[in-house]
């Protein structure tokens, strides 16, 4: 078993709890002092950071939502002046304003350590060639992997997503040994490999890290058997660094949360009550090491459960179960988070009002598809065929542009779907 930082990853549970308590106290102090939003919330409940003397008191603090983060656009949630920030990323989600996150130099080096643990944990060394087939852009994902791989001393190919045939050639010629991508891109690479007649035996791949969208055991099997590799899951959110928050060790029995940086809670998404370990609910994360953008009790929207039983890999940090569902209307398709609010805004922009619609997600031949079905109830849609066609074409173009790939759009008769169900996800993650 390989560790990047054995002392921390296999730390005694009691010492780990002490590390968490001290980290939490420091974070609360810093947040109270530097972030108006937290100061206001704490004052409302008559709480001072020094009041927190044990971890049991954490649930007394208010929860933080993406709406709060968006409302403080762009920099009001930062706990350091902008001159100390060396990196900015955004997570868009479903609000008018995106969530802007910042990193100090220390945050960057902590992030590198966290993803280095993930990579080393599945056997990546300085001898490896890591092909990062995630889109390099304003989202943080690929940058975190790059930092970690370089910290280990591996050679990085920051190829981004897309151009799959070229990627297969590079994978073969550059002797890539580690692939990092979304499962969708991995499956696309397998198809391209078939089309090009490239024999996977001729590749030097040994393992891969896949994430940014839900994927099940069937997809894992397909990726593993087609590439002859071990495929592991990783979890992270741009709001909380990105990758490196939690990841699967080779035991593949849940994703270890880096507990020296994050405190995980599970709440009932309806009542917001904290649930005992083992029960499924919404994951809430508190960061205890972040300088620029500390998050206190941040609601991730992801449904999972915490497993505190010992893992065969020897790591003591708790695990969360793989994440397939959310407790809100956000769907993650091909690595993109899409909400009905976003689609509704595009619809309103084109037609001047928001017709009834439904987002339908399906998986066809290993590929996730999104269809937007719109109820053609209004006269507007029927009086002129040409107008109707233009509307659908326009919508198709704008939504596809927005998500970055082809989305189907269909007009249907009223009553075809239940208008109260704005998202139908037909995918199964077996
Ligand atoms: Zn483990």
Protein model, in words:
The structure is a single chain. The chain is α/β, with parallel strands linked by helices and 430 residues long. It has two domains: 1-320, Rossmann fold (3-Layer(aba) Sandwich); 331-425, ANL, C-terminal domain (GMP Synthetase, Chain A, domain 3, 2-Layer Sandwich), CATH 3.30.300. Helix content is 33%, strand content 23%. The strands form five sheets. Strands 4-3-5-6-7-8-9-14-13 form a nine-stranded mixed sheet, with helices on both faces. A four-stranded antiparallel sheet has the order 10-11-12-15. Helix 5 packs across helix 6 (141-152), helix 8 (183-196) packs parallel to helix 9 and helix 10 runs antiparallel to helix 12. The mean pLDDT is 93. Bound molecules: zinc ion (ZN). Zinc ion (ZN) binds next to loops. Zinc ion is lined by residues 249, 251, 256, 311, 313, 315.
């Amino acid at each position: 078993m390989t560790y990047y930082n054995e002392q921390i990853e296999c730390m005694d549970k009691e010492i780990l709890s002490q590390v968490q308590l001290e980290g939490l106290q420091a974070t609360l102090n810093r947040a109270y002092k530097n972030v108006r939003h937290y100061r206001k919330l704490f004052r409302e409940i008559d709480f001072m950071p020094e009041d927190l003397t044990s971890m049991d008191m954490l649930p007394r603090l208010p929860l933080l939502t993406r709406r709060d983060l968006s409302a403080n656009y762009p920099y009001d949630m930062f706990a350091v002046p902008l001159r100390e920030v060396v990196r900015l990323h955004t997570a868009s989600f479903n609000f008018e304003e995106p969530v802007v996150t910042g990193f100090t130099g220390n945050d960057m080096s902590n992030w590198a350590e966290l993803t280095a643990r993930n990579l080393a944990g599945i056997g990546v060394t300085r001898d490896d060639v890591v092909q990062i087939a995630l889109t390099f852009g304003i989202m943080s994902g690929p940058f975190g992997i790059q930092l970690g791989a370089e910290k280990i001393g591996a050679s990085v190919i920051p190829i981004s997503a897309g151009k799959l045939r070229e990627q297969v050639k590079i994978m073969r010629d550059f002797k890539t040994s580690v692939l990092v991508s979304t499962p969708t891109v991995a499956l696309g690479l397998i198809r391209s490999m078939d089309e090009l007649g490239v024999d996977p035996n001729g590749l030097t791949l040994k393992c891969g890290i896949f994430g940014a969208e839900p994927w099940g055991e069937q997809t894992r099997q397909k990726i593993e058997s087609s590439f002859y590799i071990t495929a592991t899951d990783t979890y992270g959110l741009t709001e909380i660094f990105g990758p490196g928050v939690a990841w699967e060790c080779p035991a593949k029995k849940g994703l270890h949360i880096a507990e020296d940086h994050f405190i995980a809670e599970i709440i009932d998404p309806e009542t917001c009550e904290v649930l005992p370990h083992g029960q499924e609910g919404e994951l809430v994360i508190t960061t205890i090491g972040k300088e620029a953008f500390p998050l206190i009790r941040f609601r991730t929207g992801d449904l999972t459960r915490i497993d505190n039983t010992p893992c065969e890999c020897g790591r003591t940090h708790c695990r969360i179960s793989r994440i397939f569902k959310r407790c809100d209307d956000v769907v993650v398709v091909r690595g993109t988070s899409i909400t009905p609010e976003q689609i509704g805004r595009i619809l309103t922009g084109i037609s001047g009002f928001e017709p009834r619609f439904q987002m339908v997600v399906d998986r066809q031949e290993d590929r996730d598809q999104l269809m937007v079905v719109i109820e053609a109830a209004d006269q507007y849609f029927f009086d002129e065929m040409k107008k109707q066609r233009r509307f659908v074409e326009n919508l198709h173009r704008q939504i596809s542009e927005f998500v970055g790939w082809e989305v189907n759009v269909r007009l249907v008769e009223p009553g075809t779907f239940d208008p109260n169900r704005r998202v139908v996800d037909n995918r199964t993650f077996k």
